[in-house]
Amino acid sequence: MRRVAALCAVIVLAAGCVAPRRPHGVATPTPGAIVAALAARERATRGLRLSMTVRVTGAADASALPSPAYLAIDDTGAIRLQVLSPFGMTVLDLAIADGRYTLNLPLRRQTSAGSVDPATLADPAVAASDRMIVALALLFQPKARADACTGRGDATVECRVGAALRARVTVDDRLRPIREEYVRDGGAALLVATYDGYTGEDPAAAPRDLRIVDPSSGAAMAIRVQRARLATAPRT
Asked: Is residue 118 part of a domain?
């Protein structure tokens, strides 16, 4: 699995289809209700463990076969991503914590490190893989706050996450995210994630299928979540 494929795969974090129309008779939720529901989902990611497969398209290093990947988030919000080859060898190991990241590519014997700067997403000179690292961190960074988010109608809120960067999130009738965009203040989309495959009516349900698109590079990633669980505290 190549670097761009692996990094696109988790942008997460959490999921391309457009937001479906709201069923007739279902009231559009208030911005406050959306923000509260998103904040609850953000808190629920602490201790999250995901097993998934990933496939990338539209990039020079697109993958012909899906590859297994594992994502873990600890109680402080630190992120650990491991991507395996179809033969089970670790090809990428990414750790993000305290505004910094370390990327290890064992098969290439390469290691790099850097800071998580939201401005990176708006810089076309930055490699797509580096923008994806920042986007991954931002997807799991708490942003659903009443003082940072405003309603945009049609079950969408927009939350400021940087000096000139906003996250625009649309939810379904159960207040579950179905589309997330990172946009410049002028409105241009820098990253688009769509979430699908929710089962049942549980507002806390996790999506099964995710698609992430980087408009600048044309890279896209399809993700299938195979298992989602919360880490349990060790027994004493």
From this structure: yes
- Residue position matching structure tokens 């974090």: 13
Task: Note whether residue 234 is domain-resident.
Answer: no
Are the CB atoms for 182 and 138 separated by under 8 Å?
yes
Q: Which secondary structure element, helix H or strand E, spans residue 84, and what is its range?
A: strand 79-84
Q: How does pLDDT run across 165-216, given as a tens digit for each residue? A: 899 999 999 999 999 998 887 777 888 989 999 988 888 888 999 888 888 7
This prediction's pTM:
0.79
Domain of residue 170: give its range. 3-17+28-228
pLDDT tens, residue by residue, 44-98: 888 889 998 878 776 655 665 678 889 999 988 899 988 888 788 898 899 998 8
Helices (H) and strands (E) in the chain, counts: 3, 13
| ∠ CA 8-9-15, rounded to 5° | 105
How is residue 130 written in tokens?
A: 């580096």
